[in-house]
Amino acid sequence: MRGAVLYGAGDVRFEERPDPKIVEPTDAIIKISATCVCGSDLWSYRGVNPISEPTPFGHEYCGIVEEVGGAVKTVRPGQFVIGSFFASDNTCPHCLAGYQSSCQHRVLMGAAQWNMLRVPLADGTLVATPEVPSDDLVASLLTLSDVMGTGWFAADAANVKAGKTVAVVGDGAVGLLAVLSARQMGSERIIAMSRHPARQKLAREFGATDIVVERGDQGVARIKDLTKGIGADAVLECVGTEESMWQAIHASRPGGTMAYVGVPHGVSLDGQALFFSHVRLHGGPAPVRRYLPELIDLVWKRKIDPGKVFDLKLPLDQVAEGYRAMHERRAIKTLLRP
Ligand SMILES: [Zn+2]
Ligand SMILES: [Zn+2]
What's the predicted TM-score (pTM) here? Predict the structure, then answer.
C-alpha cells in the first residue's frame, strides 16, 4: 500500500508499505476512494504534538470494502462505506447512549491517508451507502467521516433549533460545516466569526446571515451588538484555544449552550468565571458514527453539499503539498485521491 508517513514537524512523506491484512475476525479491509487532511493533523505536523517515530497518518476515509473477517455480518465486499475516526463496537453502553467516540472498545484510526485501510470493529464502525455513489458525491460523503459529523455534533450538542440565534467561533472546515449544520437544523440567524474573505463567502453559502471579523473581547462585543445585548442562544466553538473558548463562553447568553469541538490545546478555564457565566458546556470528540445514517441520507438526496469545503484536491502522492497548503492557510481543507 502507498500513503502518508509523518516523520516530524513539517516532514510528511509518501511511502510504500506492505498491504494491510485481516488481523481480527471483526476487521474489514477497504480500498480508499478518497481521504483528506484534518485540522487536527496539523498539531502533529507543526510539532505541537511531537511524534516519537515515523507514523502512518490520516483518520478520515471512505471507500470500497475489499475483504472482511469471518465474524463480520453487516458489511460485505463491494459496498461503499464510511466510518468514523474512532472505530467502535456500537453495542456497549456508551455506544448505545450515542457516544460511540467514547466506546469501551474504541480504536483511534490511523493510516487513512493511504490507498488501503484496515478497519477494526467493522460492523459497528462502517455504514454503507445505498449503492456505490457517483463520483461527484464522494467528497461530500468523505466529510461525514469526521469534519461534517463534527460540525453537526457541535450544533446538536448546543441544542440548535429553529428560532435560535447561533454564533460559530472558527472558520476552519469544521466551523464552516457547523454553519451548514445549524442552517440544516433550522436556525435562521447564524453569526460566523471570520476575517478571511474566501471563508466568509463559503460561510454565507452554507447559511451564515452575519459575519463578525473582530476577535476576543471585540468579537464578543460585536455579537452582543447583533443580539440586542443578550448574546447567542448557542455558540459553537470550533478552534480549541483558550482565547476561542472564552470568546465562545462570553458570546453566549446566560442559560445558553456553548459546544466545543476543537481539540483543546493549552486551555484551562477558571471555575469562578465559568460559574458566573451561567453557560451550559458540552463537547468532546464528535460521535460521528451516531450521525452517519442521517447524514448519508442528506448527502445522498443532495440536500447538503459539505464537500464544498475541499478547496484543494490533489493526488495522494502529493500529500506533502496538501499539508503545507493547510499549514500556510492557503487551503481550507485538502482532499486526496489515491
Ligand atoms: Zn479529522
Ligand atoms: Zn461501544
Answer: 0.97
